Amino acid sequence: MELSEMTTFCLSEVSETQWIQKIHDSRWPNGFCCPKCSARHSYTIRTRRLPLYECSACGTQTSLTSGTIMEGSRTPIRLWILAIYLHSKPEGISASRLTRIIGTTYKTAWLICHKIRHAIAHSDQSQLLQGLVRINFAQYGHPYNPTVFRHPQEQPLLIGASMNAAGEFTHIKIKQAVEECSYPQFTCPLDKFPFIRKHVDPQATEIVAVTLKYSKDRNKSLLRICQNASIWINSTFRGIGAKHLQAYLDQYSYGFNMTVLKQDAFSSLFNLSMTTSALPYPELIRKPNIQPKLRLQYAHYLKNAS
C-alpha cells in the first residue's frame, strides 16, 4: 500500500475496527490464550473503547493492547498503526511532522515515536552479530576541534557488522561508546570488549575491531554507513543530543537491516510493536545524559588556552 493510500485509510474511522482485528490476530494467531491460566476460551466485553477479554476459566480480564507499546494510550488504534507505518519507511518521520499528520499534541506524538523506537531497540538486543564481524570507530557530529579534547557535540560511536563471504554487510549495529570511553574527555582509542560482550555472538568466526579514530586500518564502508546515519538524523530530525541519540541510531540500523534482508519493514515493525511492553513517559524523560561534564571541561580548556 502506498503512503498516501495508507494515510487516507488509517485516518478514516472505518479502519479502526479492522486494525483491532489485526492486532487480535497478531497477538493470538491460534486464538485467545489467557496470560494467567493459558485457557483458550474467553468472553468479549465490548462496553469499552477497546475490547476486553475475560477468561472463562479464571475470570482474568486482558486488554487488547496489554503487553504492547500501545498499552494505556488513549490515542486511537488507527493513528498508532499509521505512526508505525511511517516509522517503517526509510525516510522516517519526526515528532513535529507526525503531530501534523495524526492531529495529536507534540508530546503525544513524541511519546509515540519513542515507544516505537523502544520496540526496535528491544528487538535489537537479542540479535547478535555473527560469523565474520567487523567493528570500527565512528562518531556523530563533526565540529571543528583541533585538540585532543573531545568536543561536547562530538559523540563517539562503535559500528559493528556481520559480513558474508562476498564482503557484504548483512546486519549492522551502531552504538554510542559509553563504557568504551576510558577517558570521555579525550579523543582516544575505545575499548572494544564491552561492545563485543553485548553485541557479538561468542561463536563468531572472526572479529576484527579498529577502535582508533584515525587508524590506517579503518573500514571505510562502515564509516560511510555512519556518515549516512548522521545525514539522515540531521536532515529528518534537525540533529539529536546524546541523551536520546541511541534510539535514532537503532532506528537507522533497523531500516538498513530490513533493506539488506529485503523484508517487509512494516509487517516486522507491527509485530515488534505488538510484542513489546510500553515504556512509560517518566522513564523516557529520566534517561541520564551520558556526558554531563564534557561541556564544562571543554570550556575550561578553551579559557586556559586563550
UniProtKB/TrEMBL annotation:
Q: Where is the Transposase zinc-ribbon domain?
A: 21-61
From the Swiss-Prot or TrEMBL record, give the protein name: IS1595 family transposase
Q: Which organism is it from?
A: Cohnella herbarum
Source taxonomy: Bacteria, Bacillati, Bacillota, Bacilli, Bacillales
